[in-house]
Amino acid sequence: MEQRAFNAAVSDLVARDPHFASVIAEYGVPPIWRREPGFATLVLLILEQQVSLASAKATFDRLAALIDVVEPEHVLTLDDGALRGIGFSRQKTRYVRVLAAAVLEGELDLEGLATLEEDEARRALIALPGIGPWTADVYLLACLGSPDVWPVGDVALQAAAQRVKGLDARPTAAELDVIGEAWRPFRSVAAQLLWHRYLGDAGRL
């Protein structure tokens, strides 16, 4: 999604839901959050599962220092001990190895994902172990610019929705799914507005 389309989507959401107007008034329009599509970003997303972003980035940086370029063929030159030694868990070691092999063998066509419908691209990603709905959705949103992705399992997104909507408790993934229906077809932009609020609040602590 380009900047003009993003701004138009923000305006549409603000007009439909005054809760978003308060986010814009307090924190401004969020940047379009982008990550470079490709293998390296998927590795980082796998590392980010269930740990802090800082911890995941530190492990990723150690990996990059070992092999210079985070590409499938380079990752597969490292044995399990080397990956565990720089911070990979046993599970994430397996996940990244399977991902690397899938890309090299053509089982997963990362470049081709951009040509697929969102549901098709999501299915292609979650077919691999270690890539669940959250990882797939964040990749579609941040790397492919899909406009209507809604990563309901994201804890920060749930917490921000609670604050923005004035809810008594943090919504579950199922409850957030229902809430997000009102924001179609721009749920990716709604997610970025909510994350913007979450990060803005965190910066004040």
Global morphology: globular
What is the H/E order? HHHHHHHHHHHH
For the secondary structure, the number of strands is: 0
Low-confidence runs: none
Helical segment count: 12
- End-to-end Cα distance, whole Å, is 32 Å
How much of the sequence lies in strands comes to: under 5%
- Structural category is mainly alpha
For the residues shown, what is the average pLDDT?
95
Please tell me how large the radius of gyration is.
18 Å
Main beta-sheet strand count, sense and barrel state: none
Q: Report helical residue fraction.
A: 55-70%
Walk me through the structure.
- This protein is mainly alpha-helical and 205 residues long.
- It is 62% helix and 0% strand.
- It is built from 12 helices and no strands.
- It has helices at 3-16, 18-27, 39-48, 53-67, 72-75, 80-85, 90-104, 118-126, 133-142, 155-165, 173-180, 187-202.
- Helix 2 packs across helix 12 (187-202), helix 3 packs antiparallel against helix 7 and helix 10 crosses helix 12.
- The longest helix is centred in the C-terminal third of the chain and has 16 residues, at 187-202.
- The chain is globular and about 55 Å long.
- The mean pLDDT is 95.
Task: Give a brief outline of the structure.
The protein is mainly α.
Characteristic terms for this protein:
single chain, 205 residues, mainly alpha, 12 helices, 62% helix
